[in-house]
Amino acid sequence: MHQSIKTGRIYIIGAALLALFLGAMDALVISAAMPTIITEVGGLHLYAWVYSAYFLARAVALPVFGKLSDLFDTKKLFLFSIGLFILSSVAAGASPSMAFLIAARVFQGIGAGGIFALVYIVLSDISLPGQRAKTLSFASSIWGISSVIGPTLGGFIVTYFSWRWIFYINIPLGVLSFVGISLYLKEFREKKKTIFLDVAGVIFLSGFILALLTIFITGGRDFEWNSWQIMSLSFTTLIFGAGFYLAEKRAKDPILDLSFFKHKRFAYGNLASFFSSFSIFALFAYAPLFLQGALEQTPMQVGWAMLSLSLGWSLGSLVLGRIMGRVGAKTAALAGGLLMVIGSGLTLGFNLTTTMAHSFIVFQVVGLGMGFITLSTLIVVQESLSKKDLGVATSFHQFSRTFGGTIGVGICGGIATSGLLNRLEETSHVLNPQLLAKLRESMENLFRPEFAAMMTQGERQILQEVVLQGVSSIFLIACISSILGFVCCLMLPGEIGQKNKTIF
Fold it and tell me: Do 378 and 415 have their domain in common?
């Protein structure tokens, strides 16, 4: 009997991690396919929304599924999420137009949001006493594996098959995960007998998330920060935010009880996750600009350097999962916060003579720190609330990461673009006007071989300096955000690892 329970637990973990792998891969493999997709179905002007639609839907779904898992059967919710993801993958693969693909990506995002929320909840529910951190650390390894396999797999499928198979490949893997969850997952928590659905809270929270994240996704790129579109989105955000606050005050069972933020562990744990995600995703997005634009490294070398961030993150979580019981959650969070401060601080010394080996080590330090913070603060936030609110605690921690990363990339993107353009204008008297025109059109031209062929050696050196100065401001912002994350870790009360050892 004991052996069958142990085997069932292993199958549940495997099925849950496979579902997580599908969601993580989906955001990576599509990058390699987008040029081919545009060639076949058109819709270049909708290019960015293939990513944004998926991302926004996923962000909205995270807290909603977290709350639903505290009210309804987790198994049914998980099966629904996987099923929706499979069906929307079929629709995406069969897309006759870009608009249809974007619509399918919305439903994929909802399914992925449910999967991402429920995987961590299920792993927390089924973990043995003293093994929660170790069990949850397996999920982090999936992100590292996905970051290695995803882009390469996407390129392979597009080259030797059809771009449609980047979606169709989800079907057999999704079915396998669906069957595993269907056969082995049981409900581990007692759910509330009387259910009050906070419909108004869901609507207002969803509207708030969509409006706010759209500001940071489109601001400084599609629209100027002072444009009427951004102002309208800001006003919409305020309206939905106020509506959400009032709805939660009146709800019998709110989707997110605002009194949770009175718990220091919940508040500071999520804030630490927010600031650390702000920092690391800003580096993910704009360190390649430094490596390729300032150091003139090849895309392959840039990929290896950025891979150190992902693998460091996975390695940090895996290591911490095995030592958490000895060091405690707050100590682990402080160690992670310190590593992130050191790593992001070292980026401030990057210059035109920085080697790839040095960059790799620095990014590895940042990744390790993020791995420590992600897992330790998740444990802290989960323990800040009662077991009946495990779903809300777990999903809101993930949402804090998503929120921090989106705002970090959005803010830093606007600063990087405006900073680079301003510095380019200052050097316009020594640069070829044709080069300036191409850069005003798109900063991505910096990475195109045909653009590099147009430059003289002198112009190349000027552009390297301009890119270095522009990205240095991003490194400074990432460092400040890491420091704020470390301060939040300092504010965590007590040593949780000593107070509640049974969960580790």
Answer: yes
